[in-house]
Specification:
The complex is a heterodimer of chains A (280) and B (317). Chain A is an alpha/beta fold and 280 residues long. In chain A, 42% of the residues lie in helices and 12% in strands. The two termini of chain A are 32 Å apart. Classes of the chains: A alpha/beta (280), B alpha/beta (317).
Chain lengths: 280, 317
C-alpha cells in the first residue's frame, strides 16, 4: 500500500483525530490505568503520520520490507498508537479495548513480539531514537527506501542516550530519519522546565547538525506542513519540535479535577463521559 | 608461567584475536553481518572485519547505550549486528539497552565482550568485566558463551551466527593455551570433556580450563583421577554433562574467572542441587574488585591457579 492511498484531507484528518482521542479515553478508562493525557498530546502527530500520507504501510502485511517504520519512544503513550493502528486496519476497535488486560497483546507499553506492526518494544525511556538509527541504517543497507519516524517525549530528553543518538544520527547523515519531540511541557512530577530544563530543543538539536522545525503540535495543519517540509530534506536527520499540551482536547475536564498534568491515570467513567461529550 | 604450561599445552592466540579473524572470514558467508562498535574496534578486533567490509561497520563512538540500541534497530531490519566492546562497558554501561533493545524483543544480536576477567592486568579494576556472565545470564533468552582458546572461539563465532537469537560471547585479552585442535566439535549448549577422570570433576570455562588441565595433571601424580569439562556455554547449561559428572565422579569443583555470584558456579550448583547433590567447591574471584598488576601476578593473588583448584578438589574428596 502506497502512502498516497491513505492520505486524508485536512478536514478528514481532524475528524480522525477526534476518533483517536475517543478511543484513547475509552480504552484507558476501560483498563482502569494508563496514560491518557500523555497520549492525547501526541494525537495530531500520530494522526498525520499514519493518515496524512507520510508513511507507507500495509496492515495486511505488517512485515512488508518496503514499509516505513514508526517508533513510539515515549512508550507510555501507546494508546494513541493502538487507536491509530486500529483505524488503519491492523486490528479491530474491540481488540484494543482489551488494553492492559491479562492475556491481551495490547500491553501497557508497546511489545513488538506480541503485536505485529509494532516496530519497537519501548517503555524504558531514551532508547527509541537509537533504535530508529539502527532501522534507518538497515534501510540504507537494504536500499528499500524505508523511512523511520520516532516520537520522543520532552521529559524523555533528559536521558543521555538521546543525545548520544542525536550525534550518531548526524554522523551517518540519516536523511531517512525523522524525530518528533512531543513537547507537552509536563512529566510525571511536574513541569519539565522545573524538573530538568534543557532550554531550547531547536537550538540544541540544530547545533548537532539536524534540520529542525518548531511548530504548534496540536494544530493539525502545522503538523502536516512540518512533515511535508521534513520529507523534502534527505541529506541529514530531521527533528520536529511539536509544542503540545498534555491532555489536549479534553483540557477543561482535566482542569476541573485540579490536576491538569493528570499523569499516568485514567479518567473515571464519569469524567470519561464528560470528556467524550466535550469531543463531540 | 601461563595456565596450561605445566601440562605441556602450547600458548596460542588470545580469544579476542581468534574472534576478529573468524568474524572477517564469516563476513562473506553472511552478508547480513554488520559490526557496531564503541570506538574500541582495535582492541576488540572487530577492526579486522571493518577493514574488509567498511560499509558494514559502524563506529558509534564512546556511547555504549546508543551503540547497543542501534544494534537492536539494525537487527529488526534483518541484519546480524555484532556489538563489541570491553565486557565491563558493554554489560554494565548498557545493561538496560541490552535488556530492552535486545533481550526483551529477542533480537538476533551478537554481543561480544572482550577484556573479561582480571587477566587484562595493568589497566585495573575499572576495565575488568568480572560480573558480566552473571548479568548476561540474568536476561531471559540470552545465550552465554565463554570460550577457552582460539580454536573454540573461532568455532563459537561461527556457531553464534548459525544460531538465531541474542548471544553474549565473553572473550579475554591475553594469549591463552591451546586446548583444542582444528576440527574439534563445538556445539552451543554442549560441554566438551577435555580430559576423562573418575574421582572428581573440574568444570571450568575461559582460561580456567587450562588451569583445570594443569590441576588434573598434578592430581594424577597423587593418584586422583580428575575429569575436566569445558562448560563453554553457561546458558543454556549442559544439564546432562553435569548430572553425569556428579553421578560418575561424586564431587565437583567449578573454576571461572568471574565473581562468585551468578556465574558458572551458580549455574552448575543449581543443576547439582536439584538432581545429584554431591560435595562442591568453587574457584573464582570471590566477592571483591581486583587491582592493577601484571596478569600472572593477579591470577596468583586472586587465587585463579591450578594450585587453588587442587586445594578445592581436596576439600571435596
Amino acid at each position: 500500500m502506497a502512502a498516497q492511498a491513505n492520505a486524508l484531507s485536512l478536514e478528514e484528518l481532524k475528524e480522525k483525530g477526534k476518533v483517536l482521542r475517543r478511543q484513547i479515553i475509552r480504552m484507558t478508562t476501560e483498563a482502569g490505568s494508563g496514560h491518557p493525557s500523555s497520549s492525547l498530546s501526541a494525537v495530531e502527530v500520530v494522526n498525520a503520520l499514519w493518515f496524512g500520507g507520510f508513511m507507507k504501510y500495509d496492515p495486511q502485511n505488517p512485515t512488508w520490507e518496503g514499509r516505513d517504520r514508526f517508533i513510539l519512544s515515549k512508550g507510555h503513550a501507546v494508546p494513541v498508537l493502538y487507536a491509530a493502528m486500529a483505524e488503519a486496519g491492523y486490528f479491530s476497535v474491540d481488540d484494543i479495548m482489551t488494553l492492559r488486560k491479562l492475556g491481551s497483546p495490547f500491553e501497557g507499553h508497546p511489545n513488538m513480539k506480541r503485536l505485529p506492526g509494532i516496530e519497537a518494544s519501548t517503555g524504558s525511556l531514551g532508547q527509541g531514537l537509537s533504535l530508529g538509527i539502527g532501522q534507518a541504517l538497515g534501510a540504507r543497507l537494504n536500499q528499500n527506501g524505508s523511512n523511520v519516524f520516532v516520537v520522543i517525549g520532552d521529559g524523555e530528553m533528559g536521558e543521555g542516550q538521546v543525545w548520544e543518538a542525536l550525534a550518531g544520527a548526524e554522523k551517518y547523515k540519516l536523511g531517512n530519519l525523522t524525530a518528533i519531540i512531543d513537547q507537552n511541557g509536563y512529566q510525571q512530577t511536574g513541569a519539565t522546565k522545573d524538573v530538568l530544563d534543557f532550554g531550547s530543543f531547536e537550538e540544541k538539536i540544530s547545533s548537532f547538525g539536524w534540520h529542525t522545525q518548531t511548530i504548534e503540535g496540536n494544530c493539525q495543519e502545522s503538523v502536516v506542513n512540518a512533515l511535508e517540509t521534513a520529507s523534502k530534506i534527505t541529506d541529514r536527520p530531521k527533528a520536529i519540535i511539536a509544542k503540545t499540551k498534555k491532555g489536549y482536547g479534553i483540557l477543561p475536564v482535566l482542569e476541573e479535577t485540579g490536576d491538569s498534568n493528570y499523569h499516568g491515570k485514567p479518567l473515571s467513567p464519569e469524567l470519561a463521559e464528560k470528556a467524550l461529550a466535550l469531543l463531540g | 608461567m601461563y595456565l596450561g604450561e605445566m601440562s605441556g599445552l602450547k600458548i596460542g592466540q588470545a580469544t579476542r584475536d581468534a574472534f576478529g579473524d573468524a568474524l572477517k572470514d564469516l563476513g562473506t558467508q553472511y552478508p547480513e553481518i554488520v559490526t557496531v562498535d564503541g570506538d574500541v574496534g582495535n582492541s576488540t578486533r572487530t577492526e579486522v572485519f571493518a577493514n574488509a567490509f567498511p560499509e558494514r561497520a559502524f563506529n558509534m563512538g564512546i556511547a555504549e547505550s546508543n551503540m547497543v540500541s542501534v544494534a537492536g534497530g539494525l537487527a529488526s531490519t534483518g541484519k546480524i549486528p555484532v556489538v563489541a566492546s570491553f565486557s565491563a562497558f558493554l554489560l554494565c554501561n548498557a545493561y538496560d539497552q541490552i535488556r530492552m533493545s535486545i533481550a526483551f524483543p529477542n533480537m538476533n544480536v551478537k554481543l561480544v565482550g572482550t577484556h573479561a576477567g582480571i587477566s587484562i592486568g595493568e589497566d585495573g579494576p575499572s576495565q575488568m568485566g568480572i560480573e558480566d556472565v552473571s548479568l548476561a545470564c540474568s536476561l531471559p533468552g540470552m545465550v552465554v558463551i565463554v570460550t577457552a582458546d582460539a580454536v573454540s572461539t573461532k568455532a563459537a563465532t561461527a556457531a553464534m551466527m548459525e544460531y538465531e537469537g541474542p548471544v553474549y560471547l565473553r572473550l579475554g585479552r591475553p594469549n591463552v593455551a591451546e586446548i583444542y585442535t582444528e576440527g574439534d566439535t563445538f556445539e552451543i549448549g554442549k560441554a566438551n570433556t577435555v580430559r576423562e577422570g573418575d574421582d572428581v570433576t573440574i568444570i571450568a570455562n575461559g582460561l580456567m580450563v587450562a588451569g583445570a588441565v594443569d590441576a588434573a595433571t598434578k592430581l594424577a601424580e597423587d593418584g586422583i583421577s580428575a575429569r575436566v569439562i569445558d562448560m563453554h556455554t553457561v546458558k543454556p547449561i549442559d544439564v546432562d554433562a553435569i548430572q553425569k559428572a556428579a553421578r560418575e565422579t561424586g564431587a565437583i569443583v567449578v573454576a571461572e574467572e568471574h565473581l562468585a555470584h551468578g556465574g558458572l558456579g551458580s549455574a552448575v550448583s543449581m543443576v547439582v542441587s536439584q538432581s545429584n547433590p554431591v560435595p562442591m567447591a568453587y574457584v573464582n574471584v570471590g566477592d571483591c574488585f581486583a587491582e592493577s598488576g601484571d596478569p600472572q601476578g593477579l591470577l596468583d593473588k586472586y587465587g585463579l591457579t591450578a594450585a587453588a583448584i587442587i586445594d578445592a578438589v581436596k576439600k571435596v574428596k
